[in-house]
Amino acid sequence: MENYKRQQENSYKYTLANTNLRAEKSTSANVITVIPALEMVQAIEAEEDWYEVLYKGQRGYIYSDYLSKTKYTWTDVTLRSYPSAESNPVTIIPPKSIVQVLSVSGDWSHVIYDNKKGYIFSYFLSDDGNPPEGYDFKYFYTDMTKFVNDNKIKSPTTNLITTDLENKLTYIFEKNNYGSWNLLYKWSCTVGKPSTPTIKGTFYVSGRKPYFGSDTYRVKYATRIRGSYYYHSILFNAEGTEIINDVLGMALSHGCVRLAVENAKWIYENVLDKTTIIIN
């Protein structure tokens, strides 16, 4: 097996092929250097389709499609030398461990974990490190208020956010005096397209920024779900002066959840860090 530098945190990713490190968030920006395939880079900041990274002392931008995807094990998993249950084991990966996915073929994911490259049966990976059957989702798509209260969902703050990827709806709840959840808002949203899906699982608001974008677009009122995934506004032009795509209720984003401007602004201004988010 080939060895790679140890990945210690979620901030490290791997290039999937020979990749241009660019000076700006644009495919036409100057190329600082070409990073070879399977090189580790440190992700400094993530904004849906671009990562700001550090590589051998050089700082620049890489388009996210050219980088590994972060997943978590939710049980003890065998890393195998080939995509077969009969292949030799490389190591045992403990629960809640970070792996970087290089590619997926059928039921197997090609990954790097703790400087080792191998294959994991994809069922044992998730976006949040929890097993897929963590909640009873019986009412998730038909009665969200019943879902959150029947499952006794906890949040460190007085709010809770849920997003239904099937019906493309985002819900905002407020905790009442009895400890249960009252529905405040139900909003149409746009979610990730099939090739770049929105992550599923339980997450916690982890920061925000007034806007981000590139030389072709800008989004406003971005509240981070995890990593490069955010709740944010519909698309504006690069200057942020004109809406260029206001479509909601579709699956066409790069993984973020798009909302009407006023709704993204409400989350940005009112929902505190550490607030629980459930996406399914």
TrEMBL record:
Pathway: Cell wall biogenesis; peptidoglycan biosynthesis
Protein's UniProt keywords contain Membrane: no
This protein's name: Uncharacterized protein
L,D-TPase catalytic domain boundaries: 159-280
Pfam family, one: YkuD
Alphabetic keyword roster: Cell shape, Cell wall biogenesis/degradation, Peptidoglycan synthesis, Transferase
UniProt GO MF annotations: transferase activity
Catalytic-site annotation from UniProt: 232 (proton donor/acceptor), 256 (nucleophile)
Signal peptide bounds: none
Segments forming domain SH3b: 9-71
The keyword Transferase appears for this protein: yes
GO annotation (BP), single: regulation of cell shape
PANTHER family in the cross-refs: FAMILY PROTEIN, PUTATIVE-RELATED (PTHR34408), GLYCOSYL HYDROLASE FAMILY 19 DOMAIN-CONTAINING PROTEIN HI_1415 (PTHR34408:SF1)
